[in-house]
Amino acid sequence: xxxxxxxxxxxxxxFVQGIGxxxxxxxxxxxxxxxxxxxxxxxxxxxxNTSEDVLRRCWPEVGSRTLPEAxxxxxxxxxxxxxxxxxxxxxxxxxRCLDNLAALLDESRRRSVAALVVGPPPVVDAGAEHLxxxxxxxxxxxxxxxxxxxxxxxxxxxxxDDPTWAGxxxxxxxxxxxxGGYQRLADIVLAGPWHAWIAHPGR
Length: 203
Fold this sequence. Notes:
Blueprint: E1 6-12, H1 14-17, H2 26-33, E2 39-45, H3 51-63, E3 71-77, E4 85-86, E5 89-90, H4 94-110, E6 114-118, H5 127-148, E7 152-153, H6 156-160, H7 163-171, H8 179-191, H9 194-199
Parallel strand pairs: 1-2, 1-3, 3-6, 6-7
Antiparallel strand pairs: 4-5
């Protein structure tokens, strides 16, 4: 694997960015630390970004960080902010969010950039309705990924039921955990198809 130029762009929201982690590693840093091989990684998480924001900026940002001869990868994690309610409705409708994800994955395939999707983590202080919407969204995301042969790693329900994630989030800003919560999310990613996906040459 060391002979391959593997470039991985992680794009999404504040959970991708790792907001709240006093160690400034988030789940992305922890996953990379546990991954064998020489990987060039780019964290493109931006706080409060929805799938609309990510779709708009994805290819200008990812395109400048990939090379035609490299093994280019894209990890997408969106949806948590989409399902946050503002003015009595979600910031981005679930159907629109799913269409945005599909557009990201279809363009990724067109560009020969191998994609993987990490499901949306729960926003603890957003309440039960947010969790219901996010859980349903994640299930539909998984279906969109399956239809395209893209790995999907579910996180929503496992993190909602995890006392470390919930406890650290509520002790902080209500949404973002600390080091323990991000380690829990990293563990979920690492226990999923991550290692097999990295080991297998991208398209």
